[in-house]
Amino acid sequence: MNDFFRKVLRGIIHVFVRIGTLFNSKFVFECMNAICEESCSSLEGIVTYNVRPSNSDQIYELKIEQRKLPKTFIILQGPIMVKGNFTIETILMYKKTMPQAHIVVSTWDDADADVISRIKEMEVTVLLNRVPDKSGMGNINYQVKSTNAGLKYAKDNGAEYVLKTRTDQRLERPFLLEYLFSLLEQFPLGSGFEYLNQSSRIVVGQGTTSATMFIPYFISDFYYFGSTDDIVHYFDYDLQDFQCSYEERSKLLQKWKQTDTVYEYTAKSAPEIMLAQNYVSLKGRKKTANTVEAYWGFVKNNLICVSHNDVQLYWPKYDRMKLENKIHFLYYPGDNSSKSMIYNWTFQNWLSIYTGNLIYSEKCEILASLPASNIGSSVI
Fold first, then answer.
1. pTM here?
2. Which of the four, 32, 148, 193, 345, has the lowest number of CB atoms within 10 Å?
């Protein structure tokens, strides 16, 4: 559907919903129910929908007493999401759902001054960083620079633990910090990677795309939780010395897709892999195997993977993220054993590998070695 018809369709829906709601407060739900039921006949699947809180007024104060937690900082890094006051409402929600945490927003010095003033009035620390001269692949320099500024501030101010998140994402689950600390308490570090000198496991998200269980070191960079020193070491990454625009990156991806394997393609293009491999290899000083077997060993012994549903991740950046099955990696029309699109680091899958109920075999290496051109952009 082109942009013109999309705008027309949305305009019609807007008017239709507004008028219908005047006569019946549940009109929207009736429409959604009807759309879901009718869509099932034309789509390869059952269609459902989800309703989320849109602002902090819909979040009430926690009523269950909480024990005192170690000093923890939440770092929201990235450009301020102004639309719908998203970043501001996210901060207000966090102040209700994670009242013990200190909140830091690490963003850019070209941010809207009025919005920055509003955030500071909420007793939130704002760090205004100069935009990197060069973006690096997939804008990795932006993530690294803003994250490291937040980490430095947190460490200098006595943070024992940090939860690194993004300004354009929201973790909506109440008692989130209590859950994250509970995970660290229940799952001590494993063995085999003592050279990393981790003090505890690092909690990471489910994944940014599909099939990441079978693509070495494709570990989500949406959010990280762990001891401050461990997260600082994870982001000890040198900025890349080149500029890569969206158009240039698209051309490179098309080129690599014709020449590389799935692993080679993703290792060149995905900041998630760059950060994880840089960390595991001690910035290249330690020889590591780029295999699924070695990858699973690191994930099993040094990380804890949590499902998006466990933290109630909301990411409004792309229209495709409104499809809950694509967020949670539950179902993809056209998926098959060679694509393995639903195999992602849910807590269920991580726990089953941790306990040995899911077992590695050489078959797990196949997908990463396939030609990237055979898989399709929906997978990688």
1. 0.90
2. 32
